[in-house]
Amino acid sequence: MDAASSVxxxxxxxxxxxxxxxxxxxLLGRVLLSLVVDEDSENYIWRFFxxxxxxxxxxxxxxxxxxxxxLVLWLFAITWLFWLRMxxxxxxxxxxxxxxxx
Length: 102
Hints:
Elements: H1 3-9, H2 11-34, H3 44-62, H4 70-94
């Protein structure tokens, strides 16, 4: 089975997994970019990363103590997204409808 037919056949898994991956890696980019860019920077890449990831950070902030620094909050959000992706896969695997590796 080639990659194109796998994506077409298991679209119900790949689309949510891809969306979660986009948010997770964009948050990782935001963390790395925050090391060299000021919080209130006018850099268009920084603004894009903030605009895309702010809703996820807001959700994670609800369950995270207020005293946590923003950088740590973003790292928590990356961790939560990683575990959501794992939960997605294992949920489909337990249901017997996850993509096969071989």
